[in-house]
Each structure stands twice: as C-alpha cells, then as structure tokens.
Amino acid sequence: MKLTATENIEAPIGFVYAALADFENWERSALRRGAEVERLDRLRQPGAGMEWKVGFDYRAKKRHVEIKLLTLTPGQTLVFDCMGQPAEAILKVELAEMGPRRTRVVVEVEVKPRTLAARLFLQSLRLAKAKVNRRFALRLAQTAADIEDRYKAQAKT
C-alpha cells in the first residue's frame, strides 16, 4: 500500500531540511508521546546508516520497529527503511525549492506486509484508502505548520 502527501511550507528549503533532519528532536518528540527510543548506531554526524529501535503501544499491543536511514541527500531527500514484525515500510521525504521562502515537501510511504495478519490489515486500509490518505495528509500539514511556526519565531529574533 502506498500513501503520498504533499505540503507547501512558508520557509526556506535549508530551514525545512534542518528541521526534518533534526533527529534528536524527533527522538525527544517520540519519547514525549510515550514511545521507547533506542539509538543503535554510533554515528556522530547525521548520515546514512543511522538506526533506531522504537517501541510503542498500538491497538493495545506493544509494537517494535527498527528504523534505518538509507539515504540522506542534504537539502533534497531522506529515505528510511522501517522494519517491524508484521510489516515493513519505506518512507521517502523529498524537498523542492518553490522560491526563496517556500518549500514543497512530498512524503511517500510504501508499506509491505510480512505476515498474513498484516496483509489482512492492509487490505482493510485499502478499502478506506481515502480516509487514511486524508489523515496522513493532515498529519503532514500539522508538521508543516509546526516548521512554519518555528521559522517565523526564529525570523522575529
């Protein structure tokens, strides 16, 4: 199953990329939401090969996902491999400069089942794909608004 969402952000591409590639901030955000985050690599600088093990509750069950950064092209793309017990996913984030203070972000997630239960779950999501896509786009819009707010606050100082 493939989900795609596009959002325009009123901030320069460098600022948007820096916000999306701020992995320590994403780790803290996950911890605040109740997830368990463990860094598996020893890289000092952000780059391909970064890995995390994330544990969280979903539908009253404890889930574990290993996330690996496959590609990091500064100012352009981030590609992650997300491997869980029931399914695996590739998350791709692409940035495009629309102007000096406007950036387009395209997020694409392709989920592939690894078990029969995951195959059935993804089939049910396909039946409600419009609703799932709307929720996915809404979450991206919320993230984009947060990045815009941080840029405006930083620009005022």
Strand content: 35-45%
Total of DSSP H or I helical runs spanning 4+ residues: 4
Spatial extent as radius of gyration: 16 Å
Look at the helices and sheets and give the structural class: alpha+beta
Q: What is the helix/strand order?
A: EHHEEEEEEHH
Distance between the termini: 43 Å
- Stretches where pLDDT is under 50 for at least 5 consecutive residues are none
What is the typical, i.e. mean, pLDDT? 93
Strand order of the largest sheet: 1-7-6-5-4-3-2
Largest sheet: 7 strands, antiparallel
**Roughly what percent helix?**
25-40%
According to DSSP, the number of beta strands is: 7
What spatial form do the alpha-carbon principal axes imply?
globular
What brief labels describe this structure?
157 residues, alpha+beta, globular
Briefly summarize what is shown.
The chain contains four helices and seven strands; from the N terminus they run βααββββββαα. The protein has 157 residues and is α+β, with helices and mostly antiparallel strands. The chain is globular, with a radius of gyration of 16 Å.
